[in-house]
Write a structure and sequence with these properties.
The complex is a heterodimer.
Chain A: E1 6-15, E2 26-34, E3 38-42, H1 49-56, E4 64-69, E5 72-73, H2 78-84, E6 85-88, H3 100-110, H4 115-128, H5 144-155, E7 162-166, H6 174-189, E8 193-198, H7 201-207, E9 210-215, E10 218-223, H8 225-231, E11 235-240, H9 247-254, E12 263-265, E13 270-275, H10 278-291, E14 298-302, H11 306-314, H12 316-326
Parallel strand pairs in A: 3-8, 3-9, 6-7, 7-8
Antiparallel strand pairs in A: 1-2, 1-4, 4-5, 9-10, 11-13, 11-14, 12-13
Helix pairs in contact in A: 3-4, 5-6, 11-12
Chain B: H1 17-41, H2 43-64, H3 76-91, H4 93-105, H5 108-113, H6 119-147, H7 156-183, H8 187-202, H9 215-223, H10 225-237, H11 247-250, H12 252-277
Helix pairs in contact in B: 1-2, 1-6, 2-3, 2-6, 3-6, 3-7, 3-10, 4-7, 4-8, 6-7, 7-10, 7-12, 10-12
Classes of the chains: A alpha/beta, B mainly alpha.
């Protein structure tokens, strides 16, 4: 099962959907995911995330380039690739009429486990994903979070060496999202290699070892969440004001400290100041506020968020969309 | 990144054709059993499907039957039942289509495609389950027919032959259903097909004599594949029919074999091609 080096490797993959005149879905996509790590593909709608997952999981054929998963070529050795991967697609791909247990047994049988192994496997997975109580209920009665967990469980029947998870928490409420995150974290502990796609920067930050930012079918930046945040350079100083305080006045007096444009959020009464030297900036802002007799609700030093990195990298054209999906 | 640095592929034993064939059988049965589980968990849907044709028989037999004159005399049910058997095979088209569309839209088809299972088992399982479904529906309809006074007068072997012809028609229409299901964009398309089967079944010799229709329409009705199967099984059950002496009537059994084979020859490759195209 173990492979030295990359569990997933893609080299200059291109894909254009037949019959569309639009731009290529993937346009020189490169990716390398070391064994036992989690990589997040992050990008707005239409960046090519799902296309990348579909090609790597053998559901789609690539037009050009080369891709290997678990050491097998996705084009010429699709069958072997399928023996080593698990796929959690964008929709919970489970049979709604069957019960949770019947679903797991079905997929286990189709993974060519004997009926006894299949039953054992189903029970183990139900327990692992806290679904034992609901095992005998039809999936149509499940909440979104439960469906996702069952979907994850169904993908883990043969303990795949590589797991693809396409937007695992899209459309889930916060409780459902937390359930799924917990389930995914428990997988990380078992050493499964995971490729996760998401529109949520927070999700990538929480789960992934490395993040690849995708724009228009290619990777525009990659690295650890920390490295990406540092890449933007410098830190931010946030001031949260009392609703009665004049935000324009405060912006005016702290402007000399900033090394770039202020980010003013009027709804949250927050001013974010890009700074270079932490201590000096903090002192200068504190002094300015104190002299003006303004008492802020909050004054915080922080590193840039991934949202800011993402907006910075993808440019203003995309920012409205990206902000919307990230909030 | 350099493509030559990738770890070499692990050499796995290529499974022999025989082993693969074995898995195809096993996977097909697993897929069929999945549908049988659906019957048990959603009995209402399946039972409705089985009894719907019975309702149509009662509707036509009791409401309109009295107004229709049979050339050789006798009960309208004697005449109607063979046509309803064939029409039921057409009505069952939506069972196939709904199953295929549901799996495709829920991503279940994608999951099957990402599994190391036999690819043909997905379709073969559908095939077997739907044929079983139609066979049960047919049995219920035959039972209802017997209660209403319909009888088969032919030998046991030719009666079984008639059932065989019906299942052959169902088999051919299965591929139409799979293709429509793969092309469908959602439940609306299913509804469209459910509506379309009505004119197709009326434009035949199932309910009335095509010679009473305007000539061009009567011609279409006579050449309808549904009419061929209906005419053929009327021959085999020795039930009364409309036309005698026409070429179509003389060669009804032949046509009831050729039509389904033609439909299969068109739609089976199209369905397979569309399924494969999912990866384009």
């Amino acid at each position: 099962m173990e492979h030295s080096g990359s569990a997933i490797a893609a080299y200059h993959v291109c894909k254009r959907y037949a019959g569309t005149k639009e731009k290529a879905a993937l346009n020189g996509f490169d990716l390398e995911v070391p064994s036992g790590t989690i990589c997040a593909l992050l990008g707005p709608n239409g960046a090519g995330k799902t296309t990348a997952v579909k090609i790597l999981s053998t559901l789609l054929q690539l037009d050009a380039g080369l891709a290997r998963v678990a050491g097998f070529d996705v084009t010429t050795q699709a069958r072997q690739v399928r023996e080593h991967i698990g796929l959690v697609g964008q929709y919970a791909a489970i049979d709604e009429i069957l019960t949770a247990r019947q679903n797991l047994v079905l997929f286990a049988r189709l993974n060519h486990l004997s009926s006894r192994q299949a039953a054992l496997c189903a029970d183990t997975l139900l327990e692992q994903f806290a679904l034992t109580e609901a095992a005998k209920k039809p999936v149509s009665t499940f909440s979104g979070g439960m469906r996702r967990r069952l979907d994850l469980a169904a993908s883990l029947i043969v303990s795949p060496s590589v797991l693809f998870v396409d937007e695992p928490t899209t459309g889930l409420d916060p409780a459902g999202r937390r359930e799924v995150w917990a389930a995914m974290r428990s997988l990380v502990a078992t050493g499964t290699t995971m490729l996760l796609t998401t529109q949520y920067l927070e999700e990538a930050d929480q789960l992934a070892h490395r993040i690849c930012m995708l724009k228009e079918g290619r990777v525009i930046a990659e690295g650890t969440p920390d490295a990406l945040k540092s890449a933007l350079g410098g830190d931010w100083l946030d001031i949260v004001l009392h609703p009665d305080t004049d935000i324009n006045f405060v912006a005016h007096i702290v402007k000399p400290v900033a090394r770039g444009d202020l980010d003013i959020d009027r709804q949250a009464n927050r001013i974010s100041i890009p700074i270079t030297e932490r201590t000096k900036a903090l002192l200068a802002v504190a002094m300015a506020l104190s002299e003006a007799g303004i008492e802020p609700e909050d004054l915080t030093l922080r590193r840039p968020t991934l949202d800011e990195v993402f907006l910075h990298l993808t440019g203003p054209a995309r920012s409205a969309n990206a902000l919307e999906v990230a909030s | 990144m350099n493509p030559t640095l990738y770890p070499p592929a692990r050499v796995t034993q290529t499974s022999s054709h025989l082993v693969r064939f074995g898995w195809t059988i096993t996977d097909t049965w697993t897929m069929t059993r999945r549908d049988l589980l659906h019957w048990r968990l959603r009995p209402a849907t399946v039972i409705m499907g089985w009894f719907f044709p019975v309702m149509i028989v009662l509707l036509f037999g009791l409401f309109f039957g009295g107004a229709i004159r049979i050339p050789q005399g006798g009960s309208y049910f004697e005449f109607l039942m063979p046509g309803m058997f064939a029409t039921t095979m057409l009505f069952n088209l939506d069972t196939t289509m709904i199953a295929v569309t549901t799996d495709a839209s829920k991503g279940v088809t994608d999951r099957f495609r990402s599994l190391p299972m036999s690819a043909s088992a997905v379709v073969l399982g559908r095939c077997l389950a739907d044929l079983l479904n139609s066979l049960v529906g047919l049995t219920i309809l035959i039972g209802a027919g017997l209660l209403l006074g319909w009888r088969w007068h032919g030998s046991m072997s030719s009666s079984l032959g008639a059932v065989g012809l019906l299942l052959l028609l169902r088999f051919a229409l299965l591929w139409v259903g799979i293709l429509c299901g793969l092309l469908a964009r959602g439940p609306e398309s299913v509804a469209a097909v459910q509506v379309l089967v009505w004119p197709i079944s009326f434009l035949s010799n199932v309910f009335v004599d095509p010679s009473t229709m305007p000539p061009w329409l009567g011609m279409l009705a006579q050449w309808n594949p549904l009419s061929a199967t209906t005419e053929a099984i009327r021959h085999l059950f020795l039930n009364p029919g409309w036309q005698t002496g026409t070429w179509i009537s003389e060669h009804a059994v032949f046509l009831a074999v050729v039509y389904p084979l033609l439909i299969t020859a068109c739609f089976l490759p199209l369905s397979v091609r569309t399924y494969r195209r999912l990866s384009r």
